[in-house]
Each structure stands twice: as C-alpha cells, then as structure tokens.
C-alpha cells in the first residue's frame, strides 16, 4: 500500500502506511487535564534532548530489556505493534524483529526524525491517540506513559485501540523516583524540583479499571551513577525529563551559589551521586 503524505494539523503530524488506522477525531483539544503550555514544554524539552538521548538513557535501556523479556514468544508474525513514546526509535528495531509491522509514535517530531530507521512514524500526543478502536495487536511503551496528563484515561484509550486478545507491555516511572535529587533541592527551598509520579497502587487500579487483565506486574529500581552531583542533576535534563507536572515549582535559573548548595546536599553512596528510578513493568491483556 502506498504511504500517505504527511498530514499536519495543530495537534498531530502523521506519516502512515495504513491510513485505516487514522482516527477522524484529530481536532480534539490537545489535552483536558494538563495545560497546553505544559504539554508544549514537554514536547520542546524532549525535542531538544533528541541528539543526546541515546548517550544518556542508560536506565531506559535496562528497563527496555526487562520489558522485552515479558513479550510472549511466537505467534507474532502477522501482528501490528505500536511503539508508544518511541523517542529516537531505540527500541523500534528490536520490535521489528518480533512483529510483522511496527509503528513508532512520539510527541516529539525531532525525536522521530533523529533516527534513520525505516518505519512508519506518527508524531502525536498519547493523550489524543489518532488510532481507531480494535486496530492494534500489541502496544509496547518504555519509560513514556508517566508523561501522560491522565494515566487512567490513557489506559482506557489503549484498551480501546487494542484488538480482543491484544497485548500491552508497559514500563512506567512511579512514586519514589529521583529521590536523591529531591533530597538535594530540599536544602535550597521547599518548592518541588522534580515531577510528581503516580503510585504503584494507582497504576494497578487504573489498568484494572480500564478492563485489562494483568498477566505480570513487577517493580524494579534502576540506578545510574555519576562522578559528581552536578552530572547527576544534568542527567535528567539530557533525556528531556525536566518538565514538572505540578504548580509548586521554582521559577528561574539557579544562581551559582544556589547550585553549589544543592550539590553539597546531594546524598552520595561510595562517593558516587546516584539517580534512582522506581519503575513498574506491566504485561497486560485485553479479553
């Protein structure tokens, strides 16, 4: 089938091999629960991080490997998979070896364009998925759905687009993550300097309320080590993950003295500055 030309609206830029997947509801508002400004900020920061993402996304790579291990072997030759939050397509190539067709989807056009991998790509907001109901066999999403404005609604949407018997393999960052950075900034002020992540309980309740059967739910703690607190703090910026999803945030850049205060308060383990991510790995099924 001939690929369709790039479709552009104020919400989505799409290049699809299978136009039957495109929903007619492309003109819904960008989101309902998060401001457009915040969503655009998220998109901008991930776009700016595209060039250096692969170098710094070490924890994401470990989580991706663990998520791949949950995928049921066999019977995948004719299946269509969506790599949701694909970024620079770091996992898409592996998925292509497992499934007949793989569509890479991400909020950041720069992320998608930074890869030379040949694959259909959709630049779209996960909270406004341009996919028809019962059209996808498998959803794979690594380190992405925590950026959703409404995780519960997203799970309902993913359940809708999956075919009966469809599978979803999802890793998501949860409460307790980046605690080292939170501790360091507490020496500076009472404002929040990191994202607020959903609890493991809320994650499990949301997927069950959406109708999914949970085949597996595992929690892992992944840790990156850096030689200095400054490099540890810079690491989350390097992967684009500095957008804060709440209002209690500190405005403006840190002064040199403020940054020194934060670095001095950073908790060290064996003289290393660690950044830890608490992650839930899910294997879900639609019946």
UniProtKB/TrEMBL annotation:
GO terms for biological process: methylation. One of its GO terms (molecular function) is S-adenosylmethionine-dependent methyltransferase activity. InterPro entries: Malonyl-ACP_OMT, Methyltransf_11, SAM-dependent_MTases_sf. Residues 82-170 form the Methyltransferase type domain. Gene3D superfamilies: Vaccinia Virus protein VP39. Keywords: Methyltransferase, Transferase. Pfam families: Methyltransf_11. This is Methyltransferase domain-containing protein. The lineage of its organism: Bacteria, Pseudomonadati, Pseudomonadota, Gammaproteobacteria, Alteromonadales.
């Amino acid at each position: 089938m001939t690929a369709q030309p790039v479709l552009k609206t104020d919400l989505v830029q799409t290049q699809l091999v299978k136009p039957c997947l495109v929903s007619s509801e492309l003109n819904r508002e960008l989101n309902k629960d998060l401001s457009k400004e915040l969503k655009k900020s998220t998109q901008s920061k991930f776009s700016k991080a595209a060039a250096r993402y692969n170098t710094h996304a070490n924890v994401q790579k470990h989580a991706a490997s663990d998520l791949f291990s949950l995928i049921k072997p066999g019977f995948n030759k004719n299946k269509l998979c969506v790599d949701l939050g694909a970024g620079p397509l770091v996992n898409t190539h592996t998925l292509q070896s497992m499934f007949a067709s793989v569509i890479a989807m991400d909020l950041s056009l720069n992320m998608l364009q930074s890869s030379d991998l040949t694959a259909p790509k959709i630049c779209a907001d996960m909270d406004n998925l341009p996919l028809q109901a019962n059209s996808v066999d498998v959803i794979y999403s690594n380190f992405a759905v925590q950026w959703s404005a409404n995780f519960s609604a997203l799970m309902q949407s993913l359940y809708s687009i999956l075919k009966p018997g469809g599978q979803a393999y999802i890793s998501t960052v949860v409460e307790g993550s980046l605690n080292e950075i939170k501790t360091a900034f507490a020496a500076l002020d009472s404002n929040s300097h990191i994202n607020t992540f959903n609890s493991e309980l809320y994650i499990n309740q949301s997927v069950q309320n959406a109708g999914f059967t949970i085949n597996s739910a595992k929690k892992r703690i992944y840790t990156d080590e850096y030689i200095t607190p400054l490099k540890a703090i810079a690491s989350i910026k390097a992967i684009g993950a500095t957008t804060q999803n709440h209002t209690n945030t500190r405005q403006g850049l840190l002064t040199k003295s403020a940054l020194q205060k934060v670095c001095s308060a950073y908790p060290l383990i064996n003289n290393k500055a660690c950044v830890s991510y608490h992650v839930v790995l899910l294997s879900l099924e639609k019946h």
